[in-house]
Every structure is written in structure tokens, then in C-alpha cells.
Design goal:
- This protein is mostly helical and 180 residues long.
- It contains three helices and no strands.
- The longest helix has 75 residues, at 103-177.
């Protein structure tokens, strides 16, 4: 009986220390598979969240770009008004130029024409600034639209990973129920 007890103890100890087999091995493999599925789902969630942030950045760039275009349009309009007003003023003043009767009349005419020229230059400067703003705004709009496309792609990639993980999970879950 003593030998039987020793033999059973040795058999029990060796069975516990042997590598996993059967149901234990299956459970370990299933656990690893579920962990991979979970990691894939988490990666999908991260991709989708990153995509949403990229979309938000793109929309902000578009808003900034549109604001710059509006500001540029206003400057171009204001500059064109100044140029047209200066041209009209110059035409009026030079049409009525009479022969000056004193040097002070020449100086007055010169001062008036200089003022018209300066106003004209300011108008041209505003048009140039406005055109730069419009160009910069359009560049931001283009960049924003590209970011939105990129973000949508990230979101779709993330959702796809999540769908694949859910399908793998559901397949594993239904297969595990079918084990004997």
C-alpha cells in the first residue's frame, strides 16, 4: 500500500509538472487569440479616434482659409476702390489744369497730385495684400480638404479593423461553443 501511495504521488506530481495538453492548451490558445482580437479592436479604435482629430484639424484649416479669403476679398475691393477713386480724381484735376499764375499755384497742384499718387499707391498695396491673403487662404482650404480626406481614410481603416475584430470574436465564440 505504501508503494501504491508513493506511485500515485509521483504520477500526480509528474502530471502537474508536464506541459499543458488537451483542454488546458486549448484554453491557453483561445486566450491568446482573444487577446490578439482585443489588440486589433483597440488599434482600430485608436485609428478611428486619430482620424476624427485629423478631420477636426482639417475643418479648422478650412475655416481659417475661408476667413483669410474673405479678408483678402475685402482688401482687394477696398484697394480697387482707392485706385479707381484716385484715377478719377487725377483725371478731374488734370483736365482743369490752367496755366499757373504763381509758383504757389504750381506747388498746390503738385501737392494735390502727390496726394492722389500716394492714395493710388496705397490702393495698389491693398490689392497686393488682399491677393496674398486670398492665395494663403486657398492654400489652407486645400490643406484642410486633404486633412479631411486623410482623416476619413483613418476612420474607415479603424472601423474596418474593429469590424474584423468583432467578426473574429464572434467566429471564435461560436466555435468555442461547439467544442466537445
Amino acid at each position: 500500500m505504501k508503494y501504491l501511495l508513493i506511485l500515485c504521488s509521483v504520477a500526480l506530481i509528474s502530471a502537474c509538472s508536464s506541459p499543458k495538453s488537451g483542454l488546458g492548451k486549448i484554453a491557453e490558445l483561445e486566450s491568446q487569440a482573444y487577446e490578439q482580437i482585443s489588440d486589433q479592436y483597440d488599434e482600430g479604435q485608436k485609428d478611428a479616434a486619430a482620424g476624427e482629430k485629423t478631420i477636426t484639424k482639417g475643418r479648422k484649416l478650412i475655416e481659417e482659409g475661408r476667413a483669410e479669403v474673405r479678408e483678402g476679398d475685402e482688401k482687394v475691393y477696398e484697394g480697387n476702390e482707392m485706385v479707381q477713386s484716385s484715377r478719377a480724381q487725377y483725371a478731374r484735376d488734370t483736365d482743369y489744369v490752367s496755366t499757373p499764375e504763381s509758383p504757389s499755384e504750381i506747388q498746390t497742384s503738385t501737392d494735390k497730385l502727390t496726394g492722389i499718387g500716394e492714395e493710388w499707391e496705397k490702393g495698389i498695396g491693398l490689392v497686393k495684400k488682399g491677393n496674398k491673403l486670398i492665395s494663403s487662404g486657398n492654400d489652407k482650404i486645400d490643406e484642410g480638404e486633404a486633412k479631411i480626406r486623410e482623416g476619413r481614410s483613418q476612420v474607415e481603416r479603424g472601423k474596418s479593423l474593429m469590424r474584423e475584430a468583432e467578426a473574429a470574436y464572434n467566429t471564435r465564440k461560436s466555435n468555442f461553443r461547439n467544442y466537445p
